[in-house]
Structure formats: C-alpha cells, structure tokens
Amino acid sequence: MAVKHRAREGASRDLLYQMLRIRRFEERCVELYSGEKIRGFMHLYIGEEAVAAGVCHALTPDDAVVSTYREHGHALVRDVPATAIMAEMYGKAAGCSRGRGGSMHIFDAPHRFYGGNAIVGGGLPLAVGLALADRFQGRNRVTACFFGDGAVAEGEFHECLNLAALWRLPVLFACENNLYAMGTALARSHAETDLALRAASYDVVAWPVDGMDVSAVADSASRAAESIRAGAGPHFLELRTYRFRAHSMYDPDRYRDKAEIEQWKKRDPINALITRMKAAQEIDDDGLSVLEKEISAEIDKAIAFAEQAPVEPVEDLARFVYSDTPRAGGTRPMGAVEAAP
Amino acid sequence: MSETGTTYREAMREAIREAMRRDERVFLMGEDVGAYGGCFAVSLGLLEEFGPERVRDTPLSESAFVGAGIGAALGGMRPIVEIMTVNFSLLALDQIINNAATLLHMSGGQFGVPLVIRMTTGAGRQLAAQHSHSLEGWYAHIPGLRILAPATLEDARGMLWPSLEDPDPVLIFEHGALYALSGVPRPGPVDITRAAIRRSGEDITLIAYGGTVGKTLSAADALAAENIEAEVIDLRVLRPLDDVTIMRSVGRTHRVLVVDEGWRSGSLSAEISSRIVEQAFYELDAPIGRLCAAEVPIPYARHLEEAAIPQVATIIAAAREVVTS
C-alpha cells in the first residue's frame, strides 16, 4: 500500500520501539500467566500493536485516552510505567490501580489514562464527557477513545457518536476492528460491516485505515487529530486489524480458521515495518538488537518490581469506595434558604 | 422565592440557580431541561439566564449523557445531570453502576466522580407501571454512591450544594408528588449525612423517606388522637444509612414501622429491619412492622394504584398493629 509518510523524522524507529515493547511485554505476560503470577481475565493485543503505536503517535501528553480491557498496549505507549502496569497485574499495592483493577483496569492520572473499561462500549460516554469538559474549560485537547468492533453493536456507540457530532466535541474514536467480538465474527453480527460508513451516518468524519501498517495508522491519526484540534469535531477511524492470539487466556479459539490466522500473521505489523526500515536502511540487525535489549531490560525491571512489591493491606479493603478527603457539605451554611449571595 | 412561601419545584430551581451562579464548573444537562423548562418545570427560566452551554438539552440517550456527565466530572466540571424519571435511569444503569460507582475504587483512588444525578421517582399520579417505579432502594444497594431523598422544602432547597461539593457521585431522588408541595421553608444549613426526626413521640418509631414522609406525618397526627405518640424519622439519606438516629429512636420507643413505597422483597425496608434486629434487637417490644408497595407493577386505575402503595389510612392501621402487638 502506498502511504504518504507525514510522520516526523525518526518516527519509524519510535513506532517500531513502541510496537516491540508491547509485543515483548505481552509475551512475558503469557509466561507469567502460565506461572499464575497474573490471574483473572487477560486480553492480549499481540497483532494489533500498530493501532496503539500509530494512534498515540498523534497525541500530545495533554491529550486523554479512554481504553478497553485490551489496553496494555495503549497504556505502555502512553508512558504509564511498565513497573506500575506489571505490579497491577500482580495485584500489588504498587500497581497503578493499587491492585484493585488488574489487567483490565489500568488507570493513570498523571498520563491522563482513564482506564481500562471492561464493559464493551462503556468508555465511549466518558470520552464524550472528557471532551465536553475541555470545551467548557477552553482547553484545546483531544480525547482518544479506543474500542472494538463489538462496541459498534452497543447502543452506547450510537448514542455517543451522535452526541459528539451534535456538540462537535474533540474526540478521536479509534475503532479497533479485529473482526471478532470475542467469538462472534463481524459478518455474523452486523448487517452492515463497513463501520466507517456507519460512523459517517452520524456526521462524523470517518475513514478506514489499514491497521496492520503502523505508518498508515500514524498518518491517519495525525490528520484526524490535527483536524479535531482545528475544531472540525469528532473523527472516527476504523482500524482494520487482527489479534493473533485468542480473545482472552480462557478462550480456546474454536471459531477462527487456522488458515485465516496464518494469513494475517503474514501481515505482522512489526515484521512489515522492520522489512521496510531495513530496505530504507533505517535500521539493521545491530540496531534491532539494541532495541530488543533496551526493551528486555525494561520488562525485567517491571517484573522484578512487581515481584518484590508489597500487597495492599487487607485493612485497606474498603478504601476508595468513597473519597478520603473530608466532604465539605453539611458543615457550611451553604444551600441554606437565605443563602443566595 | 417570596415571603409568602415557595414550592418544592421552585426550591429545587433556586438551588440549581444558586449553584450555577456560585461555581462556573456547574452545569445542568438532560432531556428537555432547556427549551422545555424541564419535564417537571424545575429548570424553567434557567436556559434564559445561563444559556444553552450550561443548560444543555440532550438527545434521548440516557447512557450517553449520564456517561458524559461522569466524563465531564473526571475532566474537572461539576455536572448536574437530570434524568427525567427513575424509570429511564435504567437505560443508564451501566454508566451509573459500572462507571460512576466504581471508578474511584477501581483506579486505586485516582479518579473520583464528583457528579450529581437528579431524577424523579415514585407512584401516585396514575402513570402506570413504566412511569411509577420506586427504585431508589435498589440504587442504595451500590457502594460508591450517595443516595438522597429530599422530602421537605428545606431539603429540596439545601441538598444540592453539599451534593455538588461531595467528591463522589450523589443521586438525588425527587418524588413526583412533592413538586407542588408549598410553604415557607425554615432557613438554615442542610447536611447530607443524617436522618431527621420530623416529629417526636415515645410510643412507636415510624421510618419513612421521600414521598411517604408527608403521609406518615399525617398518620402520626391521627394516631395522636388515639393517644399513640409516634416519632417520625425522615431518612433523607438512603445510602449510607444513618443507623445512629434510627437506633436511638428505637431505644426510646421500642416499636418500629418502616414505610416504604418500594416493593417489600429485597427492599430498603428489609435492610432497615435487618439493621434494627442486628443492632437493637433487645430494645424491641414487638416485631418490626413493614408497610411497602404491593408486589405488583403499579397499575393505572386510581383505586388500584391507591391500594398498591402506602396511604395515610394503611400507615395508621399498620402502626396500630405494631403498638398493640
């Protein structure tokens, strides 16, 4: 596919680095899951790395991200520390959500990472609201909202696209179309499978993107984000991608043809970029091994951190159900009948 | 609001107006809150005063606009989301329960949701089953939420501001039969943590909230004519429940009737009864009485609807039974 590369100089190496980080991180997660260090539901992003790396490439540190239960990749690329993510999956107090969320609920306020939502479609309204808050407060920021093709079947998707378009809110809807809502193929659950077309019906600027080509994703996301920042309202990218692994660690993957999986693996976004970069002499095997070593060290450090991190004391079980900060109401004569200033 | 008095509806409107004047982060959002003036005319005139950005009409998309309220709260605003009625809040349950109530905990304390959701509740207006639910007891089941039921003009006027100051989500249930309630409210601060004793007495404690408080007070007056002095507790806060006020009253009267417009099974009245048994069992001189809605979808016909929910006469009869048992 011919792609006009608008991404900045040196971007390819960056994109490769981020994709490799996600891939290697999750490969280690699989081992840790088998070793019962990580429990619960765990959904792997392997195969879809170009989407997180490419979309986040278009974001600034001030932008917000709302994500799904398949969010390790988004969190890593958004600079949520790998140590805090790993410790969270270990259920430790040093985890980014203090062990209360696990793999599906990575949250990080300093990086404006609003979760890890495990209800399909449940994050979309949050993204609309975050963008609305930016509008109210005069901040020119983008809220990127990741969700899958499954979410397009939810009512919340349709409500939110309409609302975001009606109010022209700065939301980048990043639909990761990996063709399966858990085990149900897109064509078996949607009468109209052109998701960009459906988004466009809400007067949202929308187009499909080859989600296995990280440069194409970065290019499209950059154009969309630029347009959003210029006030053109929400944009929708249908990122056509594929997960190489099962839906979750529990999934025996009976519903996909092995040949189909192998076919998609030939389009591995990491291999594709390496091939292209090698051809353009942007990287060689030595360069690659430097990247791999750096990543491996980061992951080792994250695992060592998670291993030694203390667990949250059981006495703190009920913390964060309500805020620790004292509630001001009731102590001041506000809302009193005579009180209008 | 004049010297001669105000209505519950006007008190609520004044509360919103005052909050929006005080804090520019506050805005009102919901179905027909703007041009229509609010389905129950609570927000009448606010669009003209504050404009369409801050008095924001939404499409009929409960999940999206409630969730957008949550997102806006995360983004630093102090939204007041109006859901037309509790019946429609079912379309936003995912956002209320899976997001508003869980985000603070699930994020390890990072993301609080300072959001106020107001909605009408209750039966008694011949609106039939789909417009007559009383589900506030259901919401009171959910950790992470604060549930309020203003039953007086003071609470209609005063509960909103402390709710907006609360760093966590607050749901305010306004009983539909109360909007026309009128009178001169007592001045003074209002808290959102305690139940209130609306009438003192030593023979029985009548526990009510929202739409049944007025009926229960009328019943207490009638009982007084029979030399039964009832203490009436207005719960005000359905979560977290004010156990202290309840148990102290039970310690004085030793007899209890809980009046609840919700269905009996798995209800708020069941929760309150259990707590009394757990915390004040030896204070009781008689089994706890409960008067709840009949376990039917609320019917349209006036005589059937009246028979389905607590009324002054049935409260009197139920209280008498507890006192004489």
Describe the structure in your own words:
The complex is a heterodimer of chains A (341) and B (325). Chain A is α/β, with parallel strands linked by helices and 341 residues long. Chain A has one domain (11-316): Thiamin diphosphate (ThDP)-binding fold, Pyr/PP domains (Rossmann fold, 3-Layer(aba) Sandwich). Helices cover 41% and strands 11% of the residues of chain A. In chain A, the strands form 2 sheets. Chain A has a 6-stranded parallel beta sheet with strand order 2-1-3-4-8-7, sandwiched between helices. Chain A has a two-stranded antiparallel ribbon with strand order 5-6. In chain A, helix 9 (214-229) links the parallel strand 7 and strand 8. In chain A, helix 1 (11-34) packs across helix 12, helix 2 runs parallel beside helix 9 and helix 4 (82-89) crosses helix 12 (285-308). Chain A is globular, with a radius of gyration of 21 Å. Chain B is an alpha/beta fold and 325 residues long. Chain B is 38% helix and 20% strand. The termini of chain B are far apart. Chain B has 2 domains: 6-183, 3-Layer(aba) Sandwich (Rossmann fold); 196-324, Rossmann fold (3-Layer(aba) Sandwich). Chain B has 14 helices and 14 strands. The mean pLDDT of chain B is 96. Classes of the chains: A alpha/beta (341), B alpha/beta (325). The interface between A and B is large, with 61 and 68 residues.
Overview features:
heterodimer, A: 341 residues, alpha/beta, 6-stranded parallel β-sheet, 12 helices, 41% helix, globular, disordered N terminus, B: 325 residues, Rossmann fold, Transketolase_C (chain B), oxidoreductase (chain B)
